Model the fold of this input.
Amino acid sequence: MTSARLPAIPLLVAAASVALVALLSWLAELPLSTTLMVMAGLLLGLLLWSHVRSLRDVEERLRASLAETTAAEELASGLFDMAPDTVLLVDAHGRVLRMNEQAETMLGWSAEELVGQPVDVLVPERLLERHVAGRTGYLELDAPDRRLLGQDRELPLKRRDGTERLVEISLGPMRTPGELRVIVAVRDVTERRRAQEELERQFREVEALNRELEAFSYSVSHDLRAPLRAIDGFSRTLEEDHGAGLGGEARRLLGVVRERAARMGALIDDLLHFSRLSRQAMEVERVDMEALVGGAVESLRGGQLDDRLELVVGALPKARGDGRLLRQVWENYLGNAFKFSAGRERPCVEVRGRRGRGEVVYEVRDNGVGFAPEYSAKLFVAFQRLHPAEEFEGTGIGLALAQRIVHRHGGRVWAEGRPGEGATFGFALPTRRRSSDEESTS
Done:
């Protein structure tokens, strides 16, 4: 805008000056030739002055533009050198024009060695022909596009010492007044690939172990149940048919045999249930926890509840999860509380819940025998018992089963207690982050 108005000012001044000179010439009665010479000189001076001003303005703009260009080049150069990945600048013939410090570290080439050479020196011999054809075709395009190479299948890149690294390569065309240039960004994904392969190997091992566990579970189911049924059956027959001829100690021992066989059968059932849990599909939905607790209490009422028990169930917030599996958690938690508080004069079990930060929290508290705090981590390990089976019945797998269910929901479990002061068992389910099982079924 300023440069467009500047020439108008000298022209106005020139017009006014011509008019003034003509007026003075007429008043002074000067010859016409003299007047014209004066007017020509004046106009020439004004035009020269106008051009000088315009040239100065152009010079100032060029200096400002040059300063901006220099700053932009310095910024681009700094970003080029500070890039965390290897970055190369390649010309239209595939020659390396520039490289950053990370390129020297990754490739093993110094800038003095690599600059000026074709990028082909970085390609393994077995891939060189295909690389040259692809590079040539890309550079000969009228409008090369941005490309990401090796995203689905990492590409091997050869270092100066002959070793190879797996990489992903990004190509970015950059047109200059002279010719096309390409920015080549190289990301080393060798360690990522190794970690992925290690995870895949571990996953295959876990799958193999799961198949072995499944085969073992079926073996246990079929091979151990038959002998147990025989032991229980023969013991019952001996007791019924020949009990009159047996002494009191013999009948007691028969009872012990039958009781131990029944316990072994229960242990086999729990083991099978535990092994199958990880393969059981989850059906995630909004779950009414108060209804689940009510159903769990009813299922436990026949064998573990007595009239002395005081059960207090508070308001329980709803959650998202598999209702069948979460009911198993409540049955195991409540059954545990009922069992270990049954010896109290006034056994009391309290169920409570609340909303936490990003999760819903549930707790079952009892006034039973409790446990030493240093043993809290062992309670959720399969077959770990803090009390002898003769004192408190069970197989020692219920809390481990509850933990596996909660973990499949993306939640957490915990236990707190003191000897003789009762215990609190809790679990929390996420409200915002979905578990992997939920994502796969939704």
The longest helix spans residues 190-242. Residues 1-6, 433-442 have pLDDT under 50 and may be disordered. The radius of gyration is 44 Å.
